Every structure is written in structure tokens, then in C-alpha cells.
Amino acid sequence: MRIATLNYNGNQILGVRQGDNYVDLSKAAANLPQDMTALLAADALGQANGAAQSATDDALIPADSVTYLPLVTNPPKILCCGLNYRDHAEETGNAIPDYPIIFMRAPTTMAAHNGPMILPKAASDYDYEAELAVVIGKGGRHISNADALDHVAGYSCFNDGSIRSYQFKSPQWTMGKNFDASGGFGPELVTPDELPKSVDNLRIQCRLNGETLQDSNTEQHIFDVQTVIATVSEAMTLCPGDVIIMGTPSGVGSARTPNIWMKDGDVCEIEIEGIGILSNPIVAE
């Protein structure tokens, strides 16, 4: 199942992908929430899929007639795992961490598929980061590694756009990771049944203006999805709609000579095997 948060005729809806169309769940399942977090909290993904499978033609809308919204418009938490690819740790000269490096993003940092990622006035060193996004469907605390994947609603693409000068002004990365509309997210939530169970062998790429700058595989994860979920849940309750971003592979602009930064007018694409392509134009503030 592939489901997206969409704006259609001025209304926020959830759409289930069927070929070149989306099934408008506001028509096919009017009793269900039209908000991803609320749908997940209601444990209603299965109902949404069933409604989409039995939908009539009047619930179909062409995919090219919608505007995408961030996949989860107001997630309770966005948790990011830094320095989580072996090849990225090597290119930056960092030691392989022995414990997940976790930082947070605010919901205001998200940009939708095809929506602009904003190059801020404050700095020009705007770097791309292709990342796997994990969306939590079942909440919990003290989740074991063995049970962790049962808490996953699905996966998507994320571009963890980073203002490097602000990221490294202090030991905490928060400022450089939290500029408004700096991180692309989407286009669709892909449920686990469409992917390998452990998602640890997916090709992941970043293209800037068509040039491939990152090309790696999630097998490079230092900490896999279940380990990150279990670790985070030692400290905090995970909630339906929480988003966990799994780190970026080698090839970032800050590790290149000369550096490569995203500029006004660029288009950045993140592609993850089996999940899809997230595309964002870069627009100056």
C-alpha cells in the first residue's frame, strides 16, 4: 500500500495510490480521519487499504492533479539518527559510533514532495542528505529489538537539508538542522509488506540537477531500524505518527573538494529502491 497526504481542491485528504491515480479516502472512506497521524493513531491503515480496493471510479483522482503535503503534516516527534552510515563516517573522518547519535527536527522544517526547500538568508552552505524515513504506527515504550518492526507503519524518503555553518557552531546540531522548510519529506508512505522485512538492502541515491552525488545502500547502516527504535524507546514513548530519520550515506557536499551546496534554482531528488523519488526545487528565502 502507498498512501500520501494531499491537497486536492483546497482540501487536505489522504490518497491511496492506484496506478496513475489516487483513491480519495474522503470519498471512499469518509468515516476515516484525513490526517496521517490520526489515521495511524486509530490503527486504520488496513481499513483505508480495504476501502481503496473497493472504491468506485468517482473516488479516483489523477495523481498529476494533486498537490503533495508533507507525508505526516504534524508529527509528534521527528527523531534523526546522525552519522549512521559506515561510508559517511569514513568520508568525514569520524570514528564509527558505538551508540546511536539522536537529534530532533521540528515539524516546521518539513517541505512536501515537489514543494520548495528553502535556502535561508542566513547562510549559503546548504547541504543535501538522502535518508530513509521510518513512520511509527504503533506507539510504545521499552520496545525490544525483536518487536521493533511491528511498530512501523511504513517508510518514505527524506532530504535532511543541513546548514553546515550553523550545524557546527556548537556541539549540538539543532540549529543547522531546523531551518524552516529545509527538509523534504515524501512523497508516499510505503507499507512494510511492499519491502524486505528489515529494509537493510535498499539502494539510496541523491541527485542534484540530475547528477548523482550519493549512491549507496541501507546495508551501510551502523544501527538498523529496529535498534534505533528500541534505543529511542528506552527514553521516550514513541507515538503513532512519529518519524525517525535514519542517517545519510557518503557523498554529501560538505565532504567534497570543492564543496557542493544546494543553490537557488536547483532541483534535488532523493530516490530509495522500492519506495520512490522525492523531488524538491531549491528556492532562496
From TrEMBL:
Keywords: Metal-binding. It holds the Pfam family FAA_hydrolase. Residues 77-283 form the Fumarylacetoacetase-like C-terminal domain. The keyword Metal-binding applies. One of its GO terms (biological process) is carboxylic acid metabolic process. InterPro entries: FAH, Fumarylacetoacetase-like_C, Fumarylacetoacetase_C_sf. Belongs to the FAH family. This is Fumarylacetoacetase-like C-terminal domain-containing protein. It comes from marine metagenome.
